[in-house]
Design brief:
The structure is a homodimer of 339-residue chains.
Chain A lengths: L25 H13 L2 H8 L3 H15 L4 E3 L4 E3 L1 H27 L5 E7 L4 H15 L3 E7 L2 H9 L5 E4 L8 E15 L13 H4 L5 E2 L4 H9 L11 E2 L2 H9 L5 E4 L3 H6 L3 E4 L5 E9 L5 H32 L10
Parallel strand pairs in A: 3-4, 3-5, 7-8
Antiparallel strand pairs in A: 1-2, 5-11, 6-9, 6-10, 6-11
Chain A binds a DNA duplex (30 and 30 nucleotides) through helix 3.
DNA sequence: CACAATGATTGGCAATGCCTATCGTGATCT
DNA sequence: AGATCACGATAGGCATTGCCAATCATTGTG
């Protein structure tokens, strides 16, 4: 008990608890099982890759810790006591569980393995996911992407609450707990009914859309971005508030007004028979991937980010080309590009 | 790797196995569970009775061992990763099993607790057990006696095979692996049909029984002891071989012959209406308790032995008294006592 | 900006675990 | 019977581990 006073400070905490301190190292359990299996200290030691004295000593220690005799040693045989037999079944379960843990950990050790819960905003999901899921599957065969579609605020909430691992959004989140990486920039396009007066123009001025622009319901970032691009603080009195981009497009097709749609949705929009035109001031949004700064599988997020960015690169290049061609056709050269 | 060569002898064995050596101390699992439960290193450390740095370091070590991140540390919260959640359920089971082991061991630590498998020979069991089971139950309330009745050879075999913990026998077993302790000495009595010529004598000479002595079947030690007492090497031609002492007594009662019965069976014998007489040369057998020399619960065996010996002491004293009274009645004094 | 809270780091020390070498005791073989 | 073998126990030495106190670094708060 003199050791209690060896240190200057407080009495070590662990001395304040009861006398029962079953250290019960896991290693000892393996030794126990080995001896029970082989009924021979030497063979058991060999199977545990330790020397026989080590196993002898550790087993004796275990017996002293437990306060019971585990094996009856005899010059010709080593037999587990009945109590030991009872303990063995528990030990087997415990060791199996721990082996299962190790196996699980080993299989999960690769950050590019497992499930990645990926949030995505609704104005992006239906158009981006079909493009990138197959390449992701190919590039990261062991990574299962679990998409979750919701508006930005909800995604960020779930991200912060560890219900998502990453999210594809089109805004910069507040706070330092989340970090982002831009993936690609998506131009907005003017969407017009075929018989709209502006439909005759090759290129539409953002402000010209303001009078009859239709926007999404609250919560969609696209709503705010579209309004901002048109120079509006809020929707005009009679503006409709569509619940989804598909609805919005159908509204436009039906002649209720105009709108801005993100470039990736162009295909779907054109199918509905509306007219799409580039914007004069090249309003756009940047899609980013966001994750918690502390998220341990950063490598998985970055791999996903890389695949998406690569997959989207041709689209971005094509957009540039089309844009440039359009510019040249109008004889405006590069000046407008950087307005 | 230089450490491989530090020692003179062989390369340490444990270096020859694979690189995966998940030490995975049980302590670490408790730390893991504590942090997962409290979601706070300080509180978890307190609940584990260790300092916070210790827990921090050990947990980091565990993470490195497993190759995965177990918790996402954040300035305001500590959240288990999804992989960790999977591991936790396994860890909980493992720790519970080990706690169960410790509890089992603790409850079994008292050698006077649990089950004692006690063999007993058939010529003793039916007469001794009713006398001693109640006192044993009272003296050793936590010890459950599990009696097993069989002939000596079988008992010893089962004892050596760890199927019995101790045995009550009336011979000295061979070999050094078993040890015995004498409990009491039981006189033999002559058992005669009431109309037998010898029935008139107060005391019977052992040799006089030889002509028509009946004995038990092979394997019963009483058979050999009875024959020896009567000076016979084997049974006479017409001798019956009864399967049990009760049968033997009934044989005698029916007039088929005489026999020797052990003192404790006197009560049962008298009920069947036969005549019992003390023997002139005081043939007797000593009942012993036998157990494996290496049996760890020697204390339990000795406690049982003590209780039985004490319980039998009055009988032995009474036998001595009766004997002495008989001697005095015959005017032989003490001389015959030590013949 | 000082302060409190919290997890990470550091340095030193005792305990643990392992090894080799040796011993003690039965069993086995000339 | 004496030598030898098999096997578990013990002893001494050494590297590793685990723990603690003290301190640092970061972040949120009055």
């Amino acid at each position: 008990m003199a050791s209690l006073l060896l240190r200057g400070g407080k009495v070590p905490l662990r001395c304040s608890i009861g006398p029962d301190d079953p250290a019960m190292n896991l290693r000892d359990l393996r030794y126990l099982l080995a001896v029970a299996e082989h009924r021979h200290f030497g063979k058991a030691a060999e199977s545990c890759r330790v020397s026989q004295p080590t196993l002898s000593v550790q087993l004796r220690k275990l017996e002293e810790e437990l306060g019971i005799v585990l094996f009856e040693r005899n010059s010709k045989q080593v037999v587990p006591t009945p109590i030991c037999e009872l303990l063995l079944s528990h030990a087997r379960v415990a060791v199996a569980e721990i082996d299962a843990m190790a196996a699980l950990a080993r299989s999960a050790m690769d950050p590019l393995r497992g499930t990645l819960r990926l949030g995505i905003i609704p104005t992006l999901g239906p158009y981006l996911l079909p493009l990138v899921l197959a390449p992701l599957q190919e590039a990261l065969p062991d990574l299962e992407i679990e998409p979750w579609e919701d508006v930005t605020a909800t995604l960020l909430e779930r991200l912060r609450g560890h219900e998502l691992d990453a999210a594809l959004i089109a805004t910069e989140p507040d706070g330092t707990d989340l970090v982002t990486r831009p993936l690609f920039t998506e131009p907005f396009l003017a969407a017009l009914p075929p018989d709209h007066p502006l439909a005759a123009q090759k290129r539409i001025g953002e402000d010209d859309l303001a009078p009859d622009v239709l926007v999404l319901a609250d919560g969609h970032c696209l709503r705010d971005q579209a309004l901002a691009a048109c120079g509006l603080a809020g929707p005009l009195g009679g503006s409709l508030r569509a619940a989804s981009l598909a609805t919005l497009i159908n509204m436009v097709a039906a002649g209720y007004g105009t709108t801005l749609i993100p470039g990736l949705a162009a295909g779907a929009a054109q199918d509905s028979g509306i007219v799409l035109r580039p914007l004069r001031q090249k309003a756009s949004r940047t899609v980013r991937i966001a994750w918690r700064a502390a998220f341990p599988r950063r490598a998985a997020v970055e791999a996903v980010a890389r695949v998406i960015a690569e997959r989207l690169a041709p689209y971005a290049a094509a957009a540039e080309r089309d844009d440039a061609a359009l510019d040249r056709a109008r004889g405006q050269g590069h000046l407008a590009r950087h307005a």
